[in-house]
UniProtKB/TrEMBL annotation, chain A:
Region forming the signal peptide: none
The entry's keywords: Coiled coil, FAD, Flavoprotein, Oxidoreductase
UniProt-listed PANTHER family: SUCCINATE DEHYDROGENASE 2 FLAVOPROTEIN SUBUNIT, SUCCINATE DEHYDROGENASE [UBIQUINONE] FLAVOPROTEIN SUBUNIT, MITOCHONDRIAL
Residues that hold substrate according to the record: H251, T267, H390, R425
Coiled-coil residue spans: 502-529
Protein's UniProt name: Succinate dehydrogenase / fumarate reductase flavoprotein subunit
UniProt keyword annotation of Flavoprotein present: yes
Residues the entry annotates as binding FAD: 17-22, 40-55, 230, 415, 430-431
Protein EC: 1.3.5.1, 1.3.5.4
Class of the enzyme per the UniProt entry, highest EC level: oxidoreductase
Cofactor(s) it depends on: FAD
TrEMBL record, chain B:
EC annotation from Swiss-Prot or TrEMBL: 1.3.5.1, 1.3.5.4
UniProt entry tagged with the keyword Oxidoreductase: yes
Domain 2Fe-2S ferredoxin-type as annotated: residue spans: 5-92
Organism: Actinophytocola algeriensis
UniProt record similarity statement: Belongs to the succinate dehydrogenase/fumarate reductase iron-sulfur protein family.
PANTHER family: SUCCINATE DEHYDROGENASE [UBIQUINONE] IRON-SULFUR SUBUNIT, MITOCHONDRIAL, SUCCINATE DEHYDROGENASE IRON-SULFUR PROTEIN
Name listed for the protein in its UniProt record: Succinate dehydrogenase / fumarate reductase iron-sulfur subunit
GO terms, biological process: respiratory electron transport chain; tricarboxylic acid cycle
Pathways per UniProt: Carbohydrate metabolism; tricarboxylic acid cycle
InterPro entries (UniProt xref): 2Fe-2S_ferredoxin-like_sf, 2Fe-2S_ferredoxin-type, 2Fe2S_fd_BS, 4Fe4S_Fe-S-bd, Beta-grasp_dom_sf, Helical_ferredxn, SDH/FRD_Iron-Sulfur, Succ_DH/fum_Rdtase_Fe-S
Enzyme class, spelled out: oxidoreductase
Signal peptide annotation: none
From TrEMBL, chain C:
Domain of life: Bacteria
Keywords: Membrane, Transmembrane, Transmembrane helix
Keyword Transmembrane helix: yes
Name this protein carries in UniProt: Uncharacterized protein
Transmembrane domains' residue ranges: 23-43, 85-109, 149-170, 176-197, 236-256
Amino acid sequence: MVQVQVERFDYDVIVIGAGGAGLRAAIEARQQGKKTAIISKSLFGKAHTVMAEGGCAASMGNVNEKDNWQVHFRDTMRGGKFLNNWRMAELHAKEAPERVWELETYGALFDRTKDGKISQRNFGGHTYPRLAHVGDRTGLEMIRTMQQKIVSLQQEDFAETGDYESHLKVFSECTVTELIKDGDRIAGAFAYWRDSGKFVLFSAPAIVLATGGIGKSFKVTSNSWEYTGDGHALALRAGATLINMEFVQFHPTGMVWPPSVKGILVTEGVRGDGGVLKNSDGKRFMFEYIPDVFKGQYAETEQEADGWYADQDNNRRTPDLLPRDEVARAINSEVKAGRGSPHGGVFLDIASRLPAEEIRRRLPSMYHQFKELADVDITAQPMEVGPTCHYVMGGVEVDPDTASSIVPGLFAAGEVAGGMHGSNRLGGNSLSDLIVFGRRAGLGAAEYIDALEQRPKISESDVDGAAARAVSPFDFPSSGQAENPYSIHAELQQSMNDLVGIIRKEEEVQAALDKLAELKERAKLVAVEGRREFNPGWHLAIDLRNMLLVSECVAKAALLRTESRGGHTRDDFPGMDSKWRNTLLVCEAYDDGARVTPKEQVPMREDLLELFELSELEKYYTDGELADHPQRSGS
Amino acid sequence: MSYKGNFKVWRGDADGGDLEDYVVEVNEGEVILDIIHRLQATQAPDLAVRWNCKAGKCGSCSAEINGMPRLMCMTRMSVFSESETITVTPLRTFPVIRDLVTDVSFNYEKAREIPSFAPPKNLGLGEYRMKQQDVERSQEFRKCIECFLCQNTCHVIRDHEENKENFAGPRYLMRIAELEMHPLDEADRERAAQEEHGLGYCNITKCCTEVCPEHIKITDNALIPMKERVVDRKYDPVVWLGNKLFRRSGSRH
Amino acid sequence: MKAGVGAPDRAQISERTYRTDRWWAYPLSTGGILLFFTAYALVRYFMNNYYWAPEEHYLTPLYSPCVNAACVPGSSHFGTFIPSYASWIPLGIITFLVLLGFRATCYYYRKAAYRSLMFSPAACAVPEPAKKYSGENKFPYVVTNGHRYFFYAALIFACINIYDAVLAFHGKNGGIGMGLGTVIILINVVALVAYTLSCHACRHIIGGKLKHFSKHPLRYRYWQFVSKLNPRHGQFAMISLFTVIITDAYIMAVSADWITDLRIFN
Ligand SMILES: Cc1cc2nc3c(=O)[nH]c(=O)nc-3n(C[C@H](O)[C@H](O)[C@H](O)COP(=O)(O)OP(=O)(O)OC[C@H]3O[C@@H](n4cnc5c(N)ncnc54)[C@H](O)[C@@H]3O)c2cc1C
Ligand code: SF4
Ligand code: SF4
Ligand code: FES
Ligand code: FES
């Protein structure tokens, strides 16, 4: 038995994750008067959100006055192929502008329009220029702004109490390994410091999960090491449910060369600002890939597409800006048909479309990224790009208004929450999602605490158990060969990438599940050397459990959904099937693994449904579902 | 295309440590961080290193490579010759935790000492109007990824531990400049920059600018302009007299 | 207790620096240049001679303007309002003080001098030898804050140099003429103007001090112009150093009749 030495802290709200969602939730909780802690695996200000490039969608209508929340709502639902939680999409579209403006009051400096408002840029799937941005480092601006807002709140607390951290404290490089409950309610979280390896126990009646995504289970990904699905797994183990886990977004444009940077993102802003995709014949192939549901909404000739950048009222947008799933599949097909670039991607050309000076001004970090990592000058040469695992639409099933999961006291916001984006997320809708639902989660948690009669308690046996599980990788197995966490991780990534990747088949997903079962057994034998201070092997061993559990959800859901929709493409079921539209696949912890069951979604509210043309709905809905539609029943 | 490269990596902690020799495979297009990861996966599973994005965006992977402070993920192997032995050490200005990881909390403490953005009181949500040319200067400084390479390189604290107390370091002096140039910030910051945050320690030798991976012209665009503004406030007798006589706050607006 | 990079808690590394590049090249060469220029200037100022080439109307920038009653006839373009003083005080003392003050408080030369003469630091991430360091907080360094006054003076001197250059278009037989000296003087003036206008204090005064460029479109334009020159301020500083030496040396040689000026016309 390990000697359990645990530092203990008491808080009202604990926010796990210091990305956009986590910081916004923490700001809100603190402003509601709650004593709040932010816990993050990496340093303060380094969370994944810093990597976001293109922008943050909000229908402020600064560039095109016709934009409003209804249009944004429609775009979001279309992008998600009508599987989105419509209430979340509604709240998101309505509240995003205010949340962005709020960032300005914290000190954010977005790029400006001529008349001094926040400038907005075009992005895939958005009808009008809608993304507030700062060059191509919007995520950095958001993180830094909220980080500085937190500092400013701490300064207020300092002025009042003499202690910067009296009401709001950041625990950085601290990883949560387990949530602890009292009966069916949340009571706290167990964590370790990365630097010392020592344990920490947080007791708190409300916890907000804002841990981001799961991309590190895939080999080619734009995501960082943090994306091991911790929040997803923590929620599952605490008894919460995940939805939509089969929907994984492959961003169409990741770097493909050199190998060591394969997967690093090339922002969609390149296409938003005029870049076009070409195959090895120099042909702009996207015109061939406009799917039926989008016919009529996109330009059909190069001339019209080029005209659109200047005059959006009289031209339709270029198909290079179709939603991400469509573009990713198109690139995949071109490469398979032998029309790819030398390193297995396609060409993304901005050099021939904008003057060099302009490219450097609008896309400075892309310019540097290619210059420094691939020796490619994007103002003179085309880039080589291919799909990369980017975002998981699936996540914790939450109440749209309060962000509460089915476990009392457990909230989730940001990428770790599910529903908002349906089967496919539009670019730019994540950053806005973070601030809209981050705030709502903070509020939800505060209200939950206010209504609480008694603080839940943590039992010592739970703490001992959590500690024992955390250090178990240091015990070498009594029988059999010890496993190396790095090799298991590599195998997991390879099989998820190959078998549950962008295009899926029943046999392959089944094979992946078999492999997962094998890896799960082997993971029990993982053993690591060294001490507990900053030991990456140990950290990976702990993360592996989460990745394996979450991957199981992804694969099981992918196997069940026998259609293709958004971020889930089945080679054996290539069409979208209206019968599946309203079905959510719900994943929950079961035995030592996960179980997936279908569930119906609540039908869309009437007034929202009426925002769409009947003809459009007919492409997605079953006849039965539309029987009561006013345009039908009326005629 | 791939070859065996020679590396010396500092291993140890606050109690001591030393360079250790490793021979590692190097492939085309790789960066130092790839090599460190290969070391972890094959020879030294407990080698501590801090990183996040591997794309030069988060500023986590700062270290010193052949004595120069750099991001490991943005240092390509192709800048070295195949026969060269490459030395990788942790940052040398901050306390070491283990191997290549240092305790950078000094920077977060300094961040907290800089008074925050002071928003205009009369403007509500959505009412901010700022011209692009007015935000551009501060935007350059906001490119900062907080890698703390400049903080690490600045000789004021690198070579003089005792100055840490009185000197905010280039990154945070630049933060003051950023707010000072923010078109809607209402606070007065010049005097504090000099008297509390140690702008006067800077002798504009530009090492911060030299190592900044974001290519921010820290010295030319933030520190020197701040020094000039401080002169307006504190040292220029003519400006001082003018302000006294005509009761104006200088021609700053 | 060890200080600096050897301070407790920091990674214990015996080597002062692992830099493998030629980091010492910059301080070495810059230090050499600075010392050479200082020595040259001192010699020339105390020479008190050969600063005016009467036939060609060349006046060396080191003595311009020559306003002392002791200046040789013709060299005083602005009159001689200062009575002659002890002969061991250089005639060009005012010019010397302005030039020295301007360059010594210049942000670029400060960097150059700190790096190459005081090794503070000699190169980035190379430990400096000094035990204590208080930067520009204390005397004498605090004086550098007066740089803008030297800038104003230098601006006036730059105008005078331009005027000198115009006078250098003097024909040997009267009227307009031009020699190699004129060209050299002209190049020097261009270098001096570039150096002076790209000054950081200039950049601040002209517009950098403003909070809202949008409210001052003209000054914004000037600021943009200066900001284009400013990144090359260091280069201009070095170039103008050499052009001054060359100009002075040439005029000295012509004035002393060591060489004859090469005439382009008249
Ligand atoms: C390269 C790239 C570009 C993108 N560009 C855009 C864009 O232009 N527009 C857009 O809208 N979206 C974009 N996205 C998507 C968007 O950035 C992310 O979805 C979003 O930032 C997720 O934010 P988050 O707050 O949910 O989580 P994150 O910002 O990822 O934060 C997760 C936090 O949780 C912490 N954490 C995780 N596990 C634990 C644990 N066990 N214990 C403690 N802490 C933990 C982490 O340390 C981290 O602080 C992009 C994504 C990538 C990768
Ligand atoms: S310019 Fe100033 S702040 Fe920057 S490294 Fe040199 S002394 Fe430090
Ligand atoms: S200013 Fe540059 S060097 Fe300094 S912390 Fe920021 S990015 Fe790093
Ligand atoms: S890992 Fe993010 S900057 Fe190097
Ligand atoms: S002359 Fe160099 S900064 Fe003014």
